[in-house]
What we know:
The chain contains 12 helices and 12 strands. The chain is an alpha/beta fold. The protein has 2 domains: about 20-105 and about 185-335, P-loop containing nucleotide triphosphate hydrolases (Rossmann fold, 3-Layer(aba) Sandwich), CATH 3.40.50; about 115-185, no CATH class. It is globular.
Amino acid sequence: MKTTQATKPAGDTRNPPLLEVNKLRTVFRTNDGEVYAVNDLSFRLEKGETLGVVGESGSGKSQLVLSIINLLASNGHARGSIRFRGQELIGMKPREINRIRGNRIGMIFQDPMTCLNPYLTIERQMTEVLMLHQGMDRKTARQQSIGMLDAVHIPDAANRLKRYPHEFSGGMRQRVMIAMALLCQPDLLIADEPTTALDVTVQAQIIQLMNELQKEFGMSIIMITHDLGVIAGISDNVMVMYGGRICEYAPVFELFQQPRHPYTRGLLQSVPRLDLAGNMRLHSIPGNPPNLLELPAGCAFADRCEQRLEICSREQPALRELAPAHFSACHREAES
């Protein structure tokens, strides 16, 4: 696990962070009603920090980062505040956000095969990024692209640049996506499930690569994943999401050593452990995630929680600091 730095979810303005999200609410209008994907969520990201965001499918992880880079579907909108390097992103004009997205904020998506254009060479796709955002001529952009493919350990980069996406393996395509996201040396790299479609050996290589590149470029990273092993390998701090809210936020070592929220404990207990192989029965969290069309008045996890109190179904728990830089939104933990 990585060493940690104390970072509060929000509220400390003495040292302005790289990214500050305050009371973010992301809502989608559908034929069945409004879907609340992100609900009053606040956190801070410091320069050089890696924040892991974990939770089940439908917890709001991807919609959170799509809100940050203003790539929500046409029926969605974000309210609240998202400040990047002190500049408010919500309400920013498309031309202005385009200058930031891909330039100062890079994005790696889950499936590189659907994100890379199959009809264009890798060279065309990479050089256009630099020509658009950096104003480079094609020759300079090509040399920069070769250098970045070298940086992500793609062999014979000059020749590989001329190939099409289908000529690369899954792991190599993901390296190309990382290279494209880093071409403009962004301050923030957002990675949405970047290792999901890869085998475990390639996953480990990608995580090691991202750690190396973070040290080289000094960027911050938001890593979205459901894989707690990936979180342990790359994160400084971890944000656990459920029902569009933060249920726990802590330094990575603290979270794994002493989880405070029942949902976090359930996630950790559902992961196989090599040191307990043969003697450990995997835990499963009963029930299903909440319906985002009809979120409950109280804790969204209450119906699935084996430790729920009477108040849990009536009142939404506040996110409280239970230990230094360790926050949890749980009525039972608040009483203990």
